[in-house]
Structures are given as C-alpha cells and as structure tokens.
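Sample intake — Ferredoxin
Collected from: Rhodococcus chondri
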Amino acid sequence: MRIHIDALQCEGHGMCAATAPDLYDLNDDGFATPTDFEVPPGSESSAESGAMACPMGAIKVQH
C-alpha cells in the first residue's frame, strides 16, 4: 500500500497528522510531507484513517 498526497490540494489543515501521527508528518508550514510513501506493514488502518480525515481529499491510498 502506498500513500500519495496531492500537494496542490493540501491546504495544511493537519487532520491527517492529528489522526495518524505515526504516518503523516507536517512541514514547518503545516503541509503534509512526504507526498509519496510506502505504508509500513500493520499501519494500513492508520493510513486509511488519515486519508479519510483530510477535508480536501488530497490523500489517495493506492493498494
């Protein structure tokens, strides 16, 4: 499973990091980074939760 974050859609609400801080990091400006990463085994549920928490729909889960 991979995560892709559309940097143009991300508005820096930080809901992904608030929901799944073990997976989603924010840069100094509050935007999610990195924008593409592999989800570690066992963290799939957190990845999905963080993606669903994004009010902009900027996070895509790729299975």
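Post-analysis note: The chain has a mean pLDDT of 97.
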